[in-house]
Amino acid sequence: MQNTVKTFRHINTLEGYSYLLLLFIAMPLKYIFGFALAVKIVGMLHGVLFIALLILLVLASQKAKWGAKQSAIFFIASLIPFATFITSTKIKTYE
Questions:
Q1: For helices 83-92 and 68-77, what crossing angle results, to 10°?
Q2: Distance between CA atoms of residues 19 and 50, nearest Å
Q3: pTM
Q4: Closest-CA residue to 88 (of 1, 4, 11, 2)
Q5: DSSP state for residue 78 in the 8-state scheme
């Protein structure tokens, strides 16, 4: 159980960073400077990490026996900038 939850926490953090890179670096590069390649690269990385996060969320919630409410909180946090860093401390309590 610990390994799955720990891996989920790490991917949760990485996905949070990739989301911030996409929103605050890649998108301004595209829309202000016309550098669309930044969004393609960072967007692909973020997409892969987001899918990994969803898969690990399901696995970690089964292993740690999280209820639907707790799993929903972790999912919703992945959609809000900076929220994954807040939930990371909560996830650590389940390790």
A1: 140
A2: 9
A3: 0.90
A4: 11
A5: T
Residue in this structure with the two tokens 């949760």, named with its chain if needed: 12
Token pair for 70: 């707790």
CB atoms within 10 A of CB 37: 10
Among 80, 91, 90, which residue's Cα sits nearest to residue 23? 80
From first to last of its 95 residues, the chain has per-residue pLDDT tens of 569 999 999 999 999 999 999 999 999 999 999 999 999 999 999 999 999 999 999 999 999 999 999 999 999 999 999 999 999 999 999 88
pLDDT tens profile 26-37: 999 999 999 999
Residue 53 token pair: 């996060």
Residue type, 88: S
Residue 27's nearest CA partner among 48, 12, 42, 47 is 42
Indicate left, alpha or beta for 65 from its phi (over 0: left) and psi (-120 to 50: alpha): left
How far the first Cα of the chain sits from its last, in Å, is: 8
